[in-house]
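Quick entry, no commentary yet.
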Amino acid sequence: MKHLLSTTDPTIIAFAKALLQGEDINCFEMDVNMSVLEGGIGIFPRRLMVANDDYSLARRTLLDNGIELDDPK
């Protein structure tokens, strides 16, 4: 799996997941339960992961819809 997106905004994660599902791209959201440690204030970013084979299409889909992505490493 490859890291696609990190954000503290849950609405961006929800929008990104909906866009990816519309393209039949499976994604996995990581760090969802970090709110237990942070007290629900939203300081730890959530990460969205996709399969290696889907990475290019997923990246293009999100960029085409105005979602800014982290630079790949």
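second:
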Amino acid sequence: MNPTIELLKSHRSVRKFTDQKIPHELLRELVSAGQAAASSNHVQAYSVIHVTTPAKREQIAELAGGQGYIASASDFLVFCADMKRPTEASDRTGANVVRGMTEQLLVASVDTALMAQNVAVAAESEGLGICYIGGIRNNPQAVSELLELPDHVYPVFGMCIGHPAHDPDVKPRLPVEAILKEDRYTDDREQVDAYDDEMQRYYGERTGGTKDTNWSKSLGPLFDTKLRPHMRDFLVKRGFEMK
């Protein structure tokens, strides 16, 4: 493997950080690297909120389900899908701007995810650790109010960044054979069964035998309830009407 592929395949979520701070100049470089990601039609439909006030970080940690590392990481970023900036820029040229289209929501969400992943890889290339925080969507309205987000902007996820205070194992991924399909969609049950066996061993070894589960079983909480049913109404109220 070349160093870039090796770095990508060594990713793991870091949830314990040292007290060492990241220089602000480096943080700006990480965000700049994020901006180099592909963007649909060069819309760049994202904004990043660098949350520096300790009280705000504590509030977000609580809103996200009690994730204390939001407060303890050197830096915490909230990545926002932003259709306010590009639609207003288009407005100023005299264009007849139509807002609230489903495709605009998809473009902004995808742009934000691509940009954030560039930030994550850039941070890891500097020896830093990161952890995505999807839990901010548990209470997206409260997070939006706390960060004073305007209409047509919504918080997609957060990211903790800092110097790792632990070295967690890389979590196994699905076999490439389950993901990479030739010419058509094919059944991958055999690969999933093998992967479940691998994940069963992984969880058992990581927890000293106290966690008895696998990949398929771990998906239960995501699919046996209506996960975050508030999101559709929230997005519509933010101006993402999904027309």
